[in-house]
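worker-03 picked up job from queue 'complexes'. Input manifest follows; two sequence lines, order preserved.
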Amino acid sequence: MAETVVETVALRRTFAGLVAVDGLNLRVERQQFYGFLGPNGAGKSTTIKMLTGLLRPTSGEIRILGMDLAQNSVAVKSRIGVVPEGLALFERLTGAQLLNFVGRMYGLDRDMAAERTSELLEFMDLKDSADKLVADYSHGMKKKTALAAAVIHGPAVLFLDEPFEGVDAIAATTLKRLLQRFISHGGTVFLTSHVLEVVERLCTHIGIIRQGRLVASGSLEDLRAGVRLAGDEQTTLTLEEIFLQVVGGSKQDAEVLSWL
Amino acid sequence: MTGPTSHFSLLLWLRWHIFVNSLRSRTKQSELMMGVLGYGIVALAVLGSSFGFFFATYTVLSEGQTYILEILLWVVFLAWQLIPVLFEGYSPGLNFREVARYPVSFPLYVLLNAAYGLFDPAAIASLFWLFSIWLAVAIAHPSWAPWAAFLFVVFAVLNLLCNRIVVGVFERFQSTRRGREMVAAALLLLMLLPQMFNLAVNGWVRVHRFHPPQWIWDAFATLRRFAPPRLIVQSMESWSANALLGLALLLLYPILAALMQCRQLHRVYSGEIYTESFRVNRELKIRPGWQFPGMDESTSAIFEKELRYLRQSSRLLITLAYPLVLFAFMLLGGPGKRGFPFAGGSNLLGFFAAVLALSIANLAYNIFGMDRDGFGRWLLSPLPLERVMRIKNLAHAALISAIYAAGAIAMAVVRGVPADTLVTVTAGFFCVVILQLAVGNVVSVYWPKRVEFTQVTSRTTSSAAGFASLLVIMPVMIIGGMVVFITSYARITWLPMAAGLTGLVIAVMAYHWLTQWAVRHAEENLEQIAGELGV
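worker-03 finished. Artifact:
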């Protein structure tokens, strides 16, 4: 039986009476590439913040790599890597200094931190900008740096909040290469994304959240089998079609913006 | 579609709304009142100074002292050029290069740029002054009036063009992060200069009289001879060949300025983009991070990060260097003419320690402010937040202590300080520093503030920090005063040292208690703090 690396039980978070996440039960197994989807405001970022210790749940349990996050937060944090929503970069350091710093924060010794920094900068095509302040990086460069910072200590699980948002095709390819390499070496990825095509191409498993509740979960094939277009049982659905079926359809906008 | 006239009215509308919104953005009613009052005072000052220009011009012309008229024109020139640049440094406002993105032709863009400059408050004030001068000229010498009007129009056009060139260069400089930070640091230095001047005037520091070499005077004389104010006065006074040559030169200036302005604007209009320049590292060689003796990897890494951040912030460096510069002046210059209240070595050391202990507030009262979005990185790292805060405190305390140690050693060598005084002052210094760090930790998580490196007006701590700092300083000052009084009254010579060491122990205990309180609050309000520090 596959090892469960991320598990939540009745996870709930409220903000001044507003329920952002409501009784979420998630299960992600080792080497899964788990895509967590949902419309804006569905609770994706709140969930990933709770899973990574950036936000306390109102109630419920979180177990990462078999450890209770609330009880073992330091031990859990040392074995996960995170690219959070705001990237959380120290922008007044150069790219090289930042990666070096993060590596040492995770307990790597000076030489190993420097060695991995060098390798990551090379892999991410950031070599020429190694001495530039992160504040002066483009958005795509910052995303790549954040991903490099998330993997420098060799985590077992990666949590990525919208890693492909605002990233050009070249940078996205680099990110995908790194993630696939990570999975093939036994890692697990949990990511949220709006880019459904990317999720469809990369993810092995998908969870769809709507209004704080998990409304669909499983492998892409499972979801395709479970959601069918009315009157057409044979056509294979795209992830976008599944997504729209599960969370609700689009509005008819033929009557608005008639001048456009 | 709209015509060029509507572009100008749109620009005027924009200027007006920037002004109105600058009032509306003030959060509190009292600040709004202060803002309205402030603008009212400025308007009155412009009106009052216009009367001043009028009467000064009339008087000097009546007495035949036309060289003073030249000075008045210099005042107008400098005000027109410098005030917009200084205010530009405080608030970015509208960057005029953005207008080039809209569908306007190049000639219209040039005209709009000039009009935008003409609607500037400093330009309006300068025009008021220039008109006042002209009015006085017209009354004192009616025959000069038409000719003076022409010369003043030329002068106004030259001023306008020069101002737009200067603002253009400034905007170009401000378009890079490094440029904005350099401007912020330069303006901060300018703000500190009057304080140094005040100390020199009051005789607290000795400043040797500066005698500029002759070539500087010669250069000034040449500049004056060919400068527009001199040429205007000369042209008004006579029609000699010299004056006509001067007039030709005066007319040449706006033409040259217009050519320069067109060249500058054309580059912007064509889509010139400025980006940060940096050294490309082709040979990638990553040096290992700094290792501090007796510290583990993560502590050394945080120490290194904090010191690198301080080195990156010109503003904090200036604030930290200020006590040291002041101290060096006092130590080497000695008391000035009016006598210095801290003339003795012991008192001077105490003064230095007090100034330094106060200056740590800039670091201690907003320990995550410079990290901004990076605050989240502390939460993601496998280090308890309490440890992060303690290491940050240690880094800041180490820096301040190093400055204090340098000052104390210099003092001991130059002036000589008794050992018991050194121990007492040092204990008192660390007592205040530790208390500041402790209260600073609480303030940092209760009232976190994102530090903006490129804005001069952006504070490095929240408003609450000032009050909290007072809560530390006031009791310390009262207790210190009582100790000094009892010591001198009852002649208990060991009391200051005992009080200093006791204060140190109490400060350490308070530090532990307050830091744990701060950590508890931070852990319960992580998202709120991250939100305050993030974008």
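worker-03 released lock.
Residues 306 and 529 of chain B are 19 Å apart (CA to CA).
Residues 29-62 of chain B form the longest helix (34 residues).
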